[in-house]
Amino acid sequence: MALPGLTRLDHIGFTVPDLEQAHAWLVDVLGCEYLYAIGPLSSADDWMSEHLDVDARTVLRQLRFYRCGEQAVFEVFEYQTAEQRTAVPRNSDVGGHHVALYVEDLDDAVSWLRGRGVPVLGDPTVSAGPSKGQRWVYFLSPWGMYFELVSYPDGKAYDRDPSALQR
What is the Cα 100 distance to its own chain's centre? Predict the structure, then answer.
């Protein structure tokens, strides 16, 4: 049984240590479109704890929404709290994550990022199996969050042959 009414991903939310730095990077490097901001938000009761699973006295300094490409929307938070962990999880850590962005020309995009001093992790990798036809590479935001560029202009193997999915 699937979640009733699910039709698509709506947005991806993440927390940054410095919203101004993130804003500049998202707009100037990734080319995201800034949409709007909300905040600051805080509560004298347990609303923050009950609804966001953060300490009740946490202040949400501001959150901003960005459109990135044709469909991705990022909801970017900056919090003020005494109990904030500042270590970014690695991909292998529980809660580790990355945001993958599709590009038409992976080599051009990688060269562009490197030319702006963005840390790119290694050279593009060629996928195999069901993902054959795809190339990808990870890169880092200024606050250490993982992003990925992916490209598969001719589709992936499973697009051409669904039996490649090996379920």
Answer: 7
CA distance 124 to 151: 10
| 77 closest CA partner among 19, 120, 23 | 19
According to DSSP H, which parts of the chain are helical?
A: 19-28, 47-52, 106-115, 157-160
* Cα dihedral 87→140→96→103 (10° resolution): 160
β-strand 33-38 against 59-68: which pairing, if any?
Answer: antiparallel
C-alpha closest to that of 148 among 35, 67, 65, 72: 72
- Radius of gyration of the chain from its Cα atoms, rounded to whole angstroms: 18
HSE, side-chain direction, 13 A CA sphere, residue 164: 14
Q: What is the pTM of this model?
A: 0.90
The tens digit of pLDDT for each residue in 39-56 reads: 999 999 999 999 999 999
Whole-angstrom distance, CA of residue 101 vs CA of residue 72 = 9
Give the Cα separation of 6 and 3 in Å (integer): 6
pLDDT tens-digit map of 72-91: 899 999 999 988 888 999 98
What secondary structure, in 3-state letters, does 116-148 show? Answer: CCCCEEEEEEECCHHHCCCEEEEEECCCCCEEE
> Count of CB atoms within 10 A of residue 156's CB?
17
